[in-house]
Write a structure and sequence with these properties.
This protein is α+β, with helices and mostly antiparallel strands. The chain has a single domain (19-163), classed as Regulatory factor, effector binding domain (Multidrug-efflux Transporter 1 Regulator Bmrr, Chain A, Alpha-Beta Barrel). It contains 3 helices and 7 strands; from the N terminus they run ββαβββαβαβ. It has helices spanning 46-62, 118-131, 147-153; strands at residues 23-40, 43-44, 74-80, 83-89, 98-112, 138-143, 157-163. Strands 1-4-3-6-7-5 form a 6-stranded antiparallel β-barrel. A hairpin with a 2-residue loop joins strand 3 and strand 4. The longest helix is centred in the N-terminal third of the chain and has 17 residues, at 46-62. The chain is globular and about 45 Å long.
Length: 164
Amino acid sequence: MTHNKKEGEPCCPKFDTSKWDKKAFTWKEKKFIRDTFPLFMHMPWPPMIGKSIGKLWKMATEAKAAPDLKDFLCLSHDSSPWKGEHYMAVTKEVEGADNVTLSGDYMSMVFDGPYNAVPKYMKELDEYLESEGKKAKDYYFYYTTCPKCAKIYGHNYMVGIAEV
């Protein structure tokens, strides 16, 4: 996604927390395209995040596989302390991309705060899962807006998603 709008105008849609906060859902072969980026002890280098998401978005739009912006979903996943992955939801397979599907049961919780609070949010998500009798197998985070739009909206919402 790009900032082709006038300064101060958002490029990301306003996020509706009610769709994601404390929700359970099942994905059955949900289509994504994946890209990897380097991490240092789980910390990304910010320019690599934008580059990765921009690359995926370009591939999705050029293949006419991008969802409506209201359905935009890009998950971040730390596969190791040294490598992160982005999973961008698409409407169909994209030729030349790393096409993957996710299937399983998931639970989500919305947070509003700084990116560096993700470890704290994971603990809160674990507490919520425990209260529901569930345990996380894996974690993903959905950063709902770019940093510029988070500033415009006055919220830095992110969704913790746990495969259960």
